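Incident review: delayed structure delivery

Summary: a single-chain prediction request sat in the queue longer than the usual turnaround. Root cause was a stuck worker, restarted by the on-call engineer. No data loss occurred. The affected request and its eventual output are reproduced below so the record is complete for anyone auditing the incident later.

Affected input:
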Amino acid sequence: MNPSDHPLVIVVGAGGVGKTTLAAALALNQAQHGDDTLVMTFDPSLRLKDTLGIHEGEESDEVKVADYDDGSLTASLLDARRTFDRLIDRYAPDEEARRRILTNRFYDHLSGSLAGVLEYMASERLFEISQSGRFGRIVLDTPPTRQALDFLGAPERIVGFLESGALRIALKPWFDARGRFRATAKFGIIGRNVESFFDRMVGLELLRDMAEFFQAFAPLFDGFRERALEVQELLRSSDTLFMLVSAPGPQRVADTLFFARRLKEAGYNLGPVVVNRLHPHLGNDSKAGLPTVGSDQDGRRLLQWLAHRDAQGAAHLRDLLGKSHPVVELELRPDEPTDVQALAQLGDQLRKGIEDNLG
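Output delivered after worker restart:
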């Protein structure tokens, strides 16, 4: 259950709960304790990008953040298109097949924005890095809850597509060597009129691009299927631990339990549940009730009420989860970490919270 004991930690949760920052803090803490660590992230905030030194458009996939006596921290912003291009370079049977795929307009759209492909390429990149053996620890940040479930299910969807009848239909020779639609070519002028109609309604140019792509891509399908199965195995391995991050408050309990149940039912190894950004108690001089309008203590009483509400939510979540998963509470910080030192302090708090709850 301790992330320090697992080579791969995947941080999941809803949007806006601070999981990207916690993923970076966890990775930095691992590096400080002697591991060569990589943190991979989908979409960090601008401040966190500045802290980690990563930006879109850079030529390098990885940026060294810090070096320590025995460990180091490297950061990587996941780039689906670059990963897809690299797979084509690796698995294309020859240079001509590689060129046909990379210059295909349908591939340009598919690799850049099509739903499902981005998530699969992220899992593919994760597998690529884990197999390289260059890092002792990998911490992966994921998109918000619903997208994270898409990410985790992407390898299964790829396998399903590659084994479906839709792919066999796509691989049929719909166009002849001159780019004419075979179904209408033999009917002369009538066929050309029908083809013109299809062109206006569907767009034969797009269909040609799709047919060209699938024909060129066909030799790579077996390799993609094998890799997708290996990615599934990696995500469900006992070496992989999922850390679920939640916001405080009773209203968040149901969402957190839903995601935890989905992970367990899918066979993933769920570890600690982190309730992040709880309002801290200010002391015993104010009751944890609703603020009184007009009172000089309005601000303090409101904060006390928020702290009481957050503590109740965390306690309720702890009761529902029982001893199956430790619940770690982290207080709200005045500011998000904007440098490596602040990130290291957060990492220390996270490690201590996990160890205390496991102990």
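Verification: The chain has 15 helices and eight strands.
Action items: add queue-age alerting; document worker restart procedure.
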